[in-house]
């Protein structure tokens, strides 16, 4: 099934254990952060997976490393930062429809921001099926340099880059600053995944087809646009299409997009890029949508991530196969 390397932020998500007033205890901690979610989702699906990141030498850092290791993720490239730098935590508030909002508590700098180019080893990237990262590390140095370093190594080693933009506009000084940071990585990525709401600020269009034409013209081999309850759009230079969503009783959408990407990558890792015909890409996107749906059925980004057997059973049941 190949090997997927994910690089970037990892945090401890804090949830209320039960539905109650916003300030009542108890709370429970769950590991989170988009790239870490991708690594765990890939490992659950049977792929080899590695995570490259930075955590504090603290209780939450210990918790995160142990949780990833227990999931079978290679944690040898995780850097530990000494106090006063701390692992970031995020309090997660869930709405009645399963949507979520985050309140972050971070040291300055936070541990994940201190990932540096020197922390990205050539041997970690060599032989991988895909390298994945998002835009959060691009907010500041040295983590921005780490992203550019991994993209450079991946290109040198002919490892496809899968860029899940995951734009958080409120974290940037301006929309222009975000676009300036993201733009160069779009040109170095073979797979680009965006949410529909990210198209306008980054590509000046709301149309997935038009956005895909722009990105394919800049070197992408595959463009994926998540459409929430409408499913997902996929496009290559030779074809494009839509996959409908899988309806579920959603309680928490945290990690759904990460599950989508991981399942898509794991399926694609079984086929050389030159053989990504429409059947392969559509089947990969179907599994992405299914994994994203399943991820919404429990609280926490990682709790409901499916195994390969669970994913195939769900797809088979819902599609009548």
Provide a compact summary of the structure:
The protein is an alpha/beta fold and 321 residues long.
Characterise this structure.
The protein is α/β, with parallel strands linked by helices. The chain contains ten helices and 13 strands. The chain has a single domain (3-308), classed as 3-Layer(aba) Sandwich (UDP-N-acetylmuramoyl-L-alanine:D-glutamate ligase), CATH 3.40.1190.20. The strands form two sheets. The chain has a nine-stranded mixed β-sheet, with helices on both faces. Strands 3-2-6-7 form a four-stranded mixed β-sheet. Helix 1 packs across helix 8 (256-268) and helix 8 (256-268) runs antiparallel to helix 9. The longest helix has 18 residues, at 278-295.
List the helices and strands and how they pair.
Blueprint: E1 3-7, E2 11-16, E3 27-32, H1 34-44, E4 48-56, H2 59-70, E5 74-81, E6 89-94, E7 100-105, H3 122-125, E8 130-133, H4 143-156, E9 161-164, H5 175-186, E10 191-195, H6 196-203, H7 208-217, E11 222-226, E12 232-235, E13 240-243, H8 256-268, H9 278-295, H10 308-319
Parallel strand pairs: 1-4, 1-8, 2-6, 4-5, 8-9, 9-10, 10-11
Antiparallel strand pairs: 2-3, 6-7, 11-12, 12-13
